[in-house]
Write a structure and sequence with these properties.
By secondary structure, the protein is an alpha+beta fold. The chain has 5 helices and 12 strands. The chain is globular.
Length: about 270
Amino acid sequence: MIGQVGRKSLLLSRLSQLQYKTYIQQISFVSRVRTLSQMANSAATGTTSSSVTCVCGKVRIQFLHPEPVVRLECACQDCRQAHEYEAAAVEQGVCVGDVVQERENKKPTTFNDAWYFVNDLNIISPVNQDNLKETFEATMLREDGKTTRLISRCCRSTLAVDHPAYQEKIVMVPANSCVLDCKTIEPTARIYTGDWDTERDGPMSPTNGWPVLPPDASDADKEVYRRKFKDAFVLFGQKDRCGVSFQSLIEDLKPIRIFELTPGQRF
């Protein structure tokens, strides 16, 4: 017999499969509409600011140095897992990881559209910031993970990401998990292609001219994007921070929520 907890888990699993598809359709539609609107507004007003907004529009963070550092297509399993895990939330603020059941929802994914900005942030909304824990959550995929993510509680959008390699000077924004308003630039490279799941997701699509770095890419090959990181590190040292850092924001949100996901696990 299936107990109460088992019935609830099964129901949430079935619901989440339907809501996952709805979520993906919603974020794609909202992102397209907002991007077109923001592009039109920027063209009309000459706006040079950059910001990231959650999918439902309740939370917005401004980058006080609006110029993107670099844009990459990342095929790593952690970027994919984080996107799938949050997208598969069965209801507002509740992730499928809280339901003890193996998911059978096998959905194809895309590369993480990773944009990098100088680590100087200004929280535009909500205006009342007395209790940021009601608005944001800091998460990690597992205890021994290196990446920390800033999530909006309202719709589980990933707004910004930190990794030790960023040296606390830049942050990454996964544009396919939120709504990004900034100057448009082309990706510099496609990276971590060794993690691409061909069996599940089919062959990788071709790029529009930017290099695809193989799994055994040399340090010289990686320099195509690493040098832009290095330039940003130098630039950061020449500018004073006007807002808050990602790290100070995470400090206010502790304890960090640890999901304890198995590396490579799909949702």
